Amino acid sequence: MSTNSLLQRILQEHDRMGPAEQRLGDFVKAHPGQVIHMSMARLSQECDVSDPTVMRFCRRFGFEGYQDFKLNLAQSLVPSAPFAYEQIVPGDSIENIVRKTARNSLNAIQRALEDLLPAQIEEGAKLLQAASWVGIYATGISEVTAVDAEHKFQRLGMRCAAVMGRTKQWLHAEASRPNEVALIFSQSGHTKQMIELAIAARTGGARVVSITAAESPLARVSDVLIAVTPYDRTELLTPLASRLNHHLVINMLVTSIAVTSGSEFPDQLPALDSWQTDKI
User: Fold this and answer.
1) Nearest to residue 186, comparing CAs of 154, 133, 222, 132?
2) Rounded to whole angstroms, how far apart are CA atoms 24 and 181?
3) Helices (DSSP H) in the chain: which residue ranges?
4) Does the reported pTM lie above 0.85?
5) For labeling, which of 5, 48, 190, 280 is most exposed (least CB within 10 Å)?
């Protein structure tokens, strides 16, 4: 049996089906979460086909019967490794959009669990905690990640800032001094601007922690690498899943620093404001 998910196989087989089976396939692709809870009679009625047609459809994909088909369909909705980004396409139902977005995110987390090296997180956290100031650098969509890091590190009481804009970034990097750290986010590790900033920061005596792809040009000019495997064609697609793991690394670094600092509740950051916010 093919290692592709059942939904992918239905899509691949679509043009070779007759009209009745195509209606079945279209409904299953659009509403997989509903189908796994439907009886064969209900599915037949919904797609205006006969029960024997449903059985032929199931056997086309190598299943003995409808229950076997539903079991495999349910398994197809569970995240699996290795990660395969399931692209949202025109015509997808809202149910498919919700399912694909959630599944891609869950798969990204699973991939992070398998790929991230705890020793790299530990080394990065130690360097950040010891820094007198942390400059946080990113460009493009990764700027959102930099702002998230700034907010969370400041809530730990760290002196840091997310530095935005090419000119401002360059001025800060050139003025880097010993005991400072440049924290750089880059999905590919090939962005020229980020590589040049890393080199400039190190020239001034700062240390560089990069969250990027292993064996990339940015990784090679960093003091500490936290390797996050990039996803294919991120320069074109930049889906949520391709950025999610960078946010996870931030949380891991923040919690590691909180643990080392003796926080009673290391996974619960204190409020940034000194007053309680009003609630209605």
Assistant:
1) 222
2) 57
3) 6-13, 19-30, 32-35, 40-47, 51-60, 66-76, 94-115, 118-130, 143-155, 166-174, 192-203, 217-220, 234-237, 240-260
4) no
5) 280
Tokens representing 209 are 């922690």
CATH number of 118-260: 3.40.50.10490
78 CB-contact burial (10 Å; exposed 0-12 / middle 13-18 / buried 19+)? exposed
The count of other CB atoms within 10 Å of the CB of residue 29 is 19
List CB contacts of 274: < 8 A, sequence separation 6 or more.
none
Amino acid (one-letter) located at 183: L
Domain boundaries, the chain: 1-78, 118-260
For 248, the token pair is 């996870």
> Which segments of the chain have a pLDDT < 70?
1-4, 78-85, 231-242, 264-265, 267-280
- Torsion region of 213: left, alpha or beta (phi above 0 gives left; psi -120 to 50 gives alpha): beta
Q: Judge whether 251 and 145 are in contact, CB under 8 Å.
A: no
> What is d(CA 182, CA 185) in angstroms, rounded to the nearest whole number?
10
What's the CATH architecture for 1-78? Orthogonal Bundle (1.10)
Q: Which residue has the tokens 């930099």?
A: 146
Q: In degrees to the nearest 10, what's the CA dihedral of 127, 195, 213, 106? A: 80
Q: Which position has the token pair 């946080």?
A: 136
**Over the stretch 73-107, which tens digit does the pLDDT of each residue have?**
887 776 544 456 677 788 888 988 888 888 888 87
Query: To which residue do tokens 């996803």 refer?
Result: 231
